[in-house]
């Protein structure tokens, strides 16, 4: 879109407003009429002009620090930006999936301060991890192979620590980076890692940058 022709009535702005309103983020909206309406979306996009070196005009002056942070993060990584945008479009078109993501508490997302790809894709990550059927298969396969279920990052063993209470207990973490998550992709056993609760929480704190192997190396340093 030609930024000089960017208005709240532009078809692309209207379409973007509709897409954002379909995303399963906020259960309660502060203002149903104004929430992510075309005018608000247009103003938000115009905020980016203030620090866009390719824009020769004058941008909005009331931009926030987060606007600048988001722009600078994706300015030199448009490929990642497009991948994330495509994931959001997929979710917005899948009403059944969107309803499932609404069931994931906002509190589970808000505490992940270093999740850069956003609440929707993080919810998709959590939703994929809660597939009890494939999680069970992963645990059964590893238990058959090892005879126990140690954490892949720190080697903690719930059974060894808690006895019968911890028998065959372990959590599943999805290895796929958030920017590569897709609502259309099925989870395989290779996509999952078995980790203890503590390591799982730490992985989620930097879920877009920290891998299981990276955490393992961090612990052994």
* Separation of the first and last Cα atoms: 48 Å
Low-confidence stretches: none
**Oligomeric state:** single chain
Taking the sheet with the most strands, its summary is: 2 strands, antiparallel
- Helical fraction equals 40-55%
The general outline is elongated
Order of helices and strands: HHHHHHHHHEEHH
Radius of gyration: 21 Å
Mean pLDDT reading? 82
Summarize this structure briefly.
50% of the residues lie in helices and 4% in strands.
Question: Would you spell out the secondary-structure blueprint of this structure?
Answer:
Elements: H1 11-22, H2 38-47, H3 65-75, H4 78-93, H5 95-102, H6 106-110, H7 119-129, H8 132-146, H9 158-162, E1 171-174, E2 192-195, H10 197-205, H11 212-220
Antiparallel strand pairs: 1-2
Helix pairs in contact: 1-2
Describe the structure.
The structure is a single chain. This protein has 221 residues and is mainly α. It is 50% helix and 4% strand. A two-stranded antiparallel ribbon has the order 1-2. The longest helix is centred in the middle third of the chain and has 16 residues, at 78-93. The termini are far apart. The model has no long low-confidence stretch (mean pLDDT 82).
